[in-house]
Design brief:
Oligomer: single chain
Order of helices and strands: HHHHHHHHHHHHHHHH
CATH topology of the largest domain: MetI-like fold
CATH class of the largest domain: Mainly Alpha
Number of helices: 16
Helix content: over 70%
Strand content: under 5%
Low-confidence stretches: 1-17, 294-301
Mean pLDDT: 87
Number of domains: 2
Radius of gyration: 26 Å
Shape: globular
Length: 301
């Protein structure tokens, strides 16, 4: 670097080549920060409105400012009324959603990880064809599969049962794709060969060695599956008719459809929507440390 360029850089003046250096860097940081602030406001304002509206009475929902609290503050009484309405059916829907999402995401993550690991670490005829077929499943919208699944499940008598919603949630083409990519990058072949030489079986090598190395990918797949299953609406709408089997999304939809006949349901739908996002927040906040460890580990590889 010449002395003129060094002086221009130190004084934040343009160099002879015309580059502004630190000034451009500071401007890019300001623009990036501004974009993130706008995005944060865009996503957080609806949640703020939901929290504010859930603290109001039914009459204050229309007559007061939608983005600020009003008196009386009724959030806790509204939540209590929500869980006691219609014999506590909302709690039943909430537990159903937790069961669908937690079990479906857990087993779906395991199956996707096993499939992705096998596609990454074993060579066999038709491997790429199988992977490309699974990858094509990412492009198929879930709504397009609802009717075929309904016809298949109706033939075996699974319609209007828990299994009608649970079994389809075990399939995650995106999870298989992510697991294969991560297994190929994070599970070294020499480590697996050493485990085999020590007498370890393939299943033991997978469950003891590979799963621990793939923990960030497991958490990512689990969270994706959890969110997808928790927000699942169309499949339960097609499969279920017994309201005791409904997930929370379908239950709130039925309440919202009956607002004209029962105006108090408008408030319960709002409060129920607020309560329904709490498990998602808990899942993300509780598992974020695994993402952070994965990012820090990947930065030094």
């Amino acid at each position: 670097m010449s002395s003129k360029t060094a002086i221009a850089t130190a004084t934040n003046e343009p160099s002879p080549s015309g580059a502004t250096g630190p000034r451009e860097h500071a401007l890019s940081k300001i623009l990036a920060t501004a974009a993130l602030v706008v995005a944060a406001i865009y996503f957080l304002v609806p949640i703020w409105w939901l929290a504010v509206a859930s603290s109001k009475s039914l009459g204050n929902l229309v007559t007061t400012n939608g983005l600020w609290f009003s008196q009386p503050f009724q959030l806790f009484s509204n939540v209590s009324d929500l869980f006691s309405y219609q014999g506590g059916i909302y709690l039943r829907w909430l537990l159903n959603s937790v069961g669908y999402a937690v079990l479906g995401a857990a087993f779906g993550t395991l199956f996707a990880t096993m499939t992705g690991y096998a596609l990454a670490k074993y060579s066999f005829r038709g491997r790429e064809l199988i992977f490309n077929t699974i990858l094509g499943g990412v492009l198929v919208p879930a709504t397009a599969l609802a009717l075929p699944l309904f016809l298949m499940f109706s033939q075996v008598g699974l319609v209007n049962t828990y299994l009608a919603v649970f079994l389809p949630s075990l399939v995650s083409p995106f999870g298989v794709y992510l697991a294969r990519i991560y297994a190929a990058a994070s599970v070294p072949e020499p480590l697996l060969e050493a485990a085999r030489l020590d007498g370890s079986s393939e299943f033991r090598a997978f469950f003891v060695i590979a799963l621990r190395l793939m923990t960030p990918a497991l958490v990512t797949i689990f969270l994706f599956q959890f969110v997808v299953i928790w927000n699942n609406f169309f499949l339960p709408l097609v499969m279920l008719s017994d309201d005791k089997l409904f997930p929370i999304t379908l239950g709130l939809y039925t309440w919202n459809s009956a607002v004209q006949q029962a105006p108090e349901l408008r408030l319960y739908v709002i409060v129920g929507s607020l309560v329904s996002i709490l498990p998602l927040l808990i899942a993300f906040l509780g598992l974020q440390r695994f993402w952070q460890s994965g990012l820090s580990a990947g930065s030094v590889k």
